[in-house]
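Help!! Second protein's tokens look totally different from the first
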Amino acid sequence: MHGIMYILRQVGARVKETGAVYWRCFYSVTLTIAGAVGLASVPQGLECLRLVSQPGWNFPLFLVSVAAWSLAAWYSARLTLGRVFDGHSLLDHAHSPYVRSLRTWLPRCLGVVPSALLTLTFYRLREPVLALACAGAGATIGVFVVKRRAWFATRFQMRQNGSEESMRFAALQRRTVITVAGAIALSFALLFALWWRPVEVAAVITAPVLLCFAFASWILFGDLVLTYFFKQAGLPSMAAAPLLLFLVFSLTNDNHAVALIAGDSSPMIRRDIDRHLDAWLDARVASGDLRRGAPFPLYLAAAEGGGIRAAYWTGIVLAKLQDDSGNRFARHLFAMSGVSGGSLAVSSFAALVADGQDGALARAPCARANPARPYQQCIRSLLRRDFLSPTLGYLLYPDMLQRFLPYPIASADRARAMEMALDDGWRQATGSERFAQRFDHLWQGAGAYQVPSLLLNATLVAGGNRVIASDLVIDGRFPDAYDAFDPLLDLRRMSLATAIHNSARFSYVSPAGTVYACRRGAVLAPCAPGLERAPWGRLIDGGYFENSGMESLRDLLFALRPGLARWAAAGYRIVPSVIMISNSPGALAPSGKQDPGGVRLDMTFLSELLAPPMGLFYTRAARATFAVTAERRDMAVTVPDDGGRFLWFGVTTRNDTPLGWALADVTFNGMDQLLAPEPGAQLARLPFDAVSASLGAPAQKR
């Protein structure tokens, strides 16, 4: 019994000592281990590592940032564990061999952990040269932290010089204070540079580099300022202060109001569905595309969410349909519904169609490389970009600072960086300003009836309903959905880029956007100058409600049925067809009853805690599958299913393409290869020829 009690006392003592050590260097340990494991194991982290493996300065800068992170972790842990503070802390009075070992070896281990894990990860990514470089950097840091005293004869004010406690000291040297102050000053310089020019800075310092520099900054500030200097002044550690400030100031510092264009108060273009359908078909009659007795395909397209993966796949599919048809596909495309990255793709395609109507597309820089394939060229130029780095830079620096301030600073909103990146990407690719212009400007001018309608789906946090931004009036035929451009809501002056982003507010990377309504007293009133504005609700990614975009398309199709019946009675054979563009790797076209053989058991680790959130997460995909399957059923009722009324463009080959807003070139190239004309490629299993045949044009040479 006495032996058991002795063991329990020893274990308890070690646990207390471990906790004391961990709390003393909380930021070093937490950010080093969590950050390194995240980069090495999370799919988005792995894609970031593929980004830095591309030619150029990406990898050298990344190696410098990893070294800065590693040295900050080692340096901060060494100083905080080695300092003897006046107080009653367990760590200041502990002399056990276990504590002495932790003081010596924990900082050294923290200094080599990032490089060691990155070495293994680059080797797993089949980048042996980069793995060797990381191994070399880690070995250099490891040798330095062990041999630095012998090399540089560094001297501290010791308690017992030469003893096992020789790393313990009572005060910092002056050069150490200068080093720490200089490092923190550089962090603030990077903060203000990103605040001033996020897109330009992020073009040089990409997301993984920014992340590593941020870890270094937070470690130095957290361990040396909030812990070391407060305890040196005889005060308790303030390591928990950021969490407290984050919680308290979250009540007053919401800086995520949906951005509006200043000074543009002209009437907004809104189209009633029935009248717009008649006007749209009248334009086809006038052009000769629609004739009595001749079949006329009317296409509706839905684009699934999935970040830049969804945007790129959807974009190249739509662009190929347009180029292969000699620009005729868009004349038969009535509307497109998008979610998240799918919204970026359908909006980009609609904007290119609008530029094509006024001749701007022919003059666009992106179209010059291959004038025979302008849509595909421009989609690739626009979407093969890094939209993550500006947003992540803002998240890690200006918007992170905002979280600890009591009042909102609109210019620190990371949504601003995302929308600036969208604007800049469009401008560089095409030379026009459509993404920066008001949403409804897409349908201005003589080509208004040539540009497909858009339904960009977001989700309202309070209620979980759809909020749809569209040139069409969203009325009661869209059950449980809000019209983003309802007169009571102050959203009519938002740009196309902002409307896209509202549908694509990817969890945590982009913030929930606060929407304001107009009030007259306590009652909502149509927005007009002089009325009071008050927060109405917050918008998040449309995939929270349903990730395929098909639910809104189903509602639209039902709303179109009476109008289509009138035209059919007048002798016009209008054949509605639905295009579903899915980007989920390994997904199969929906086919009704599910096969139990394809189910795998979810994780059993911590199942009591994890089962509910995992179930909610997976219903996101299940609702999308249900909506697509239900639409396929509805199409069979509306029009006899002859195999050409529901067209599924999905990624049916497995590929390693994570969700996110940045992909490496090798990943983009992999998606391009899915449409390669080689025998057995993805292209042979997708219905491009069916669309070409329906338009009366032979399939083009690919």
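Here's the second one for comparison:
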Amino acid sequence: MKFKDINFKKYIDVVRNRLISFLRADKKNQIIFMAIFVVILIGAYKLFLSDNFDTNIFDDDNKEKNVKQEVILAIDNVRTLNPIVSHDKGVYQITPLIFDSLFTLDENMTPQPLMVDSYTLDGTTLNIKLKNMKDHNNENITAEDVVNTFKAIKNSANNSLYFDRVSGIKSISGSGSELKVEFLDKKVNLTSLTFPVLGFGNNSSFRDGINSDIKLKVAGTGRYVIKSFNESKGLKLEPFDAYHEGKAKNSIEVNITNGYENNVKLVETSGISVLYTEDINIKSNLRNKDAEVKSIVSNDVEIIWFNNNNEFLKDYNFRSAIANAIDIDSIINDDYAETIKGTAGIFKKGYMTSDKTKRTSEYDLAVAKKDLKKAGYKDLDGDGVVDKKDKKSDKKISSRLNLLVANDNFNRLEVADRIKKDFNSIGVDINIVSVSKDVYLNNLKNKNFDICIGGISLGEKMDITEYFYSRGENNIANINNKKIDENLDKFNSETDIKKCRQYVQAINDEIEKNRSIYCIGYKKYGIVKSPVIRGDINSTISNIYKGIETWYCEYDLNKTTEDENKDK
């Protein structure tokens, strides 16, 4: 029975009459009545606390509300729910709801134990004791489950989103609650252990749809269990009663929808509770202003690369000059319309709590000109371009550089125009080379540029090694810095979080101090909240639906059909 079905006037009259009778009753009747009254109160209390109880309540404005302990999500297509082989972004995002991992990443991208009770490191061997946990078939989760999951990822022949994550792991072995992880040399990283763990029990039975690409009969290990799954409609998730971190308070419906624009309309009209989007302009595109957007700082970073082998840019003072001629505030606020979170160094602010790095260069054209003088550059022929004489040939060398940019990225083209203007004002001539994406990528691969504007995606591991290590595979900036190499080696061989923070800070400081690149910042994506969603949205780029177990929806029952049609 719901509140709207209760006759409150009748109920109050009954309570009043019972109280009068109570006051007039003898002592024996008073005791009996009191016992009955206590039983009624306990029953009502349990009713209110029931997990899926839909209630109508009254807020401060006396508007009747309907509270539902159900959250509606949306994903595009689902080819398989098997997280090991799925490449569907939507499946990747809901996987943490169904499958736990040994470690999880907090808001600072710092690994924290999830299925792990304790761990110790001995060289490159990590010894783990698992928590006492159950899978969705109520069987004990053991080290064998982790071993089998690891083997399945390794055997996926690079056909898994988690293959790169475990690339630094040599082997995983163990039994019962004891687990041993052998890392390759200089590859010790707890983030490697954030892959989903599948439950392999003798009696496991999981919907066939999850096994469409590789033959696995597995059970979930996470906070929610799959109640039903339809390849064309979606799936329903219910709280797992025996979850080791506590049972969720709600259920989840995941609808399979087609088209981003349709999803935006649905979230505005509360057909979807929350929607993850990488549309950096989503705030300005929403028509229903009651739908809110929570920004999420991604792992996609925008960078101005300097080719450190260039005859001009290999000079520190020259790099310092052009760094001081970059108007970063205008770039972030105007060219990227505040869809970028600025940062110093390469790691984003807050990563491993590395937030002490400050920019060594500030937009100051007067300082930039002084730096050019320190580098020995001045305008020798009055053409507005600073020059330098070659010591061997005594020939004049004019500071003319090519700036490479892909012509399919409007924001980067805007940045290129701004940089050209400011660099010209200090006497550095810039020629913008705007090319197709394919030509752009080929030039980067061959390091055929002086300066370029681009971006990289660092993923869950935030691994910059291939870009900044002296012998890195994608070290397009030709950076050769022993201090960066040493700290990267230490960072990649360490599990102690405090030491990791020190190495991250040292790398960040060295990159910023050396001015080998100019980091613009990290792209901001978003979670769009429908007008009815309630609860704290704690989403991070590594866990889009973090905290979802406390979310619920509150609908206004006094809203007329006419109002609803207006929203649609």
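Reply: Different proteins will give different token patterns, so don't panic. The two ends are 31 Å apart (CA to CA).
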